[in-house]
Input
Amino acid sequence: MSCEEMEMATQKHTQGPRHSKEDLNRLNQAIQQLAVEVDGAKGQPCELEKAKDLAALQEEGASGGAKGKLAWLEGALQRAKQDIARQLREYQELMIVKLGLDFEIATYCRLLESEESR
Output
């Protein structure tokens, strides 16, 4: 197998992690948007704060529907954060494997080139 073929194979196998990185970037953006909503934008009440206020009003009116929805939203946010953390760990593991493979390929290319020069 020539160096060019090895490089093509390496490029083929690195496409998966690139797509994973793009997915991670999209999910990170979604988390940042949720964090902005949770924290509120420059003192303005965010949707989550509005939901909390609504839950308090409905609780006073003997209705807990918004409170349940708020709990569900907070749970969904926590699950999304856990999913992002899991995907990040998987991505890091893939990058470690990729770097090892890149190192091996470079080593074999050098060996092949030195063998061809003999």
Notes: The CA atoms of residues 4 and 109 lie 9 Å apart. The longest helix spans residues 65-117. The mean pLDDT is 75.
